[in-house]
Amino acid sequence: MNYEVKISSELQVRPAQVKATIELLDGGATVPFISRYRKEVTGSLDEVQVAAVRDRLQQLRDLDKRKEAVIKSIEEQGKMTDVLLQSIATAETMAKLEDIYLPYKPKRRTKATIAREKGLEPLAKQIFKQESLDIEQTAAEYVDAAQEVNSIEEALQGARDIIAEWINENVILREKMRKLFLEHGSFTSRVIPGKEQEAIKYKDYFDWSEPIKTAPSHRVLAMRRGEKELFLMLDSCPEEADALALMEREILENAANASVEQVHLAIKDAYKRLLKPSMETEVRLMTKKKADEEAIRVFAENLRQLLLGAPLGEKAVMAIDPGFRTGCKLVCLGPQGQFLHYEAIYPHEPQRRTAESGMTVKGLAEKFSIQAIAIGNGTAGRETEAFVKNLGLPKSVIVTMVNESGASIYSASDVAREEFPDLDLTVRGAVSIGRRLMDPLAELVKIDPKSIGVGQYQHDVDQSALKNALDDTVMSAVNGVGVEVNTASKQLLTYVSGLGPVLAQNIVEYRNQNGPFSSRSQLLKVPRLGEKAYEQAAGFLRIRQAKHPLDSSGVHPERYELVEQMAKDLGATVTDLMSSEELRQRINLKNYVSERVGIPTLEDILQELAKPGRDPRESFEVFQFEEGVNSISDLKTGMKLPGVVTNITAFGAFVDIGVHQDGLVHLSHLADRFVKDPNEVIQVNQKVQVTVMEVDAARKRIGLSMKSDPFAERGKKMAKPEENRSAKPNQKEPSMAEKLAMLKGKFGG
Prior knowledge:
Elements: H1 3-11, H2 15-26, H3 31-37, H4 39-42, H5 47-76, H6 82-90, H7 94-101, H8 111-117, H9 121-128, H10 135-140, H11 152-168, H12 171-184, E1 186-191, E2 207-211, H13 217-228, E3 232-237, H14 240-251, H15 258-307, E4 317-321, E5 328-333, E6 339-345, H16 354-367, E7 372-376, H17 381-389, E8 398-402, H18 407-411, H19 414-419, H20 425-438, H21 440-444, H22 463-481, E9 483-484, H23 490-494, H24 501-514, H25 531-537, E10 541-542, H26 560-569, H27 574-579, H28 581-585, H29 599-610, E11 640-649, E12 652-656, E13 663-666, E14 687-696, E15 701-705, H30 736-746
Helix pairs in contact: 1-2, 2-5, 3-5, 5-30, 8-11, 9-11, 11-15, 12-14, 12-15, 13-15, 14-15, 15-22, 15-30
């Protein structure tokens, strides 16, 4: 198959761009490297387009591999023809290929197989012609006790079994039936009798039906989960009459005779016994894949926004993992996140050693020159925040809440044990909270993304597809920000283009044995880090105060000579170029265009010279919850409160308002205008103002609104009933995950 032409047509780019991208990918280049440092080769394809080429290429290669297996199987049976070979070669989807292969696919012993063994296939052929004949007399010729055909009806039944199999294997009919299921079928769920109480969380699906083609991903996954847990019965079919009518139009002749009546009976049997189960399985797999893709897209976008949260930066931080009975675990960290001190304090009930705890906090803040205090947002978080803020610390000390989702997972992980073998789990959790404030990206890469709390139905979707998407997201974020090689953890280095866990570990070990790296070129001394890995990784690694000034920038070492020539032409140094806007404005980029370097790369270089190693993340802003609103019992309808978006789903956004239970802003209440996709107007970690619409303390459900006048449509439903608001699930310019999902949609996944 000519992959370049097909993919270029689907993605609407030139075949030469696709061809070049495929060659780079096959040569081991990563998506971040290709999109950042090979713009001239690919015609400036961006990260989303390069990833789309990669994924579509894999799909097409998988299809070709399956075609080879099908051809081999049919040839071994001695049934291959030129027409059949051509139909296999031109099959564009896996479903079409499997339809073609179905009649030749090795089967278990079926009813049709048994009928053939009894010699009934000639009878089936006679009947399937649908010509007028004496059906009983014809069938009587096949009654043979030796072949275990003991009656006319048994002969006719066997013939119908064979005809039913032919009908099921009809390629054209299967295509039309698949379309009928997808376009006119419905998901219909019912509660399993006697399980009404056990299945109460699925109450909205006890008697539910909606079209397959419009069912949103979260409801598809919810119904499937209810079925898996044996609470719901789920069907996904069109009306049976419509399906039978389609089959009759395709199979039956206009004449009315005994043969036609036998074929009519075979059609009913083929649908109920073979075609309906087969199509339902296919459709359920297709809709599951589509629902998975949407859930994964939402998860990946939420993760991207979380990873790219604003960092506080290198400051001395005190981190507190709050608690009541067991006390608050307090740690002090240095500007690079190094662990300095641990203490347990008991400012709350039942010990209530408030004065003593206050003296400890103030003393440690002074001793370690603490510049910020990070407090986990779990149990006792708001109470601990109030306690710290009442201590009279210097106004220069930032006090802020930090989302601690996944901190407990980190504290019990191999990563945490390796970092802090002598510290208790709870102390490691406090360290994680503090480091998240300093640099969310560097800390969150140590945790399985599924434990961070920004997914929706993440345990129900295809786990391999989820892992690939999240790995892509993390790699994109890490390489987009850049990594300081002398302070980065092994986990962070693992996601750098071209490295992986082995080389990341080798870099850390080399750094520990030989001291900080003084240049990028020194990376070539790391065991097993060869020229190829260096080429892929070097541009994304930063070395502050390196010998060469460009080592702290995003300029790739392969372009150092070019930048040095620019400086030389101006009678200046590279350092001069980086510090002088006037000098940079004098650079005529056209003078440096060559076969290998074009304007796109030269413009990137100029941007890097202006802001070497710039961090694309937003600046950190202190956030504060409403004082006096600490629990769900403090909430009143109509309250206007500050909050932080913790999760985005297909049906709205969850917002932390500081009461230990996130509230839901339904899609219809995200803005004064119609919103189709929550990501149009909101992001994870975004600071928002919300109005409390309803409070159900018993079920821990909080309804919120971001509308300027939310009560103007008081009668309007806040949320679809199936959205579980007590659960804590999952820009103007579409994100990488969104763009990739849209591109995938063009060619079926």
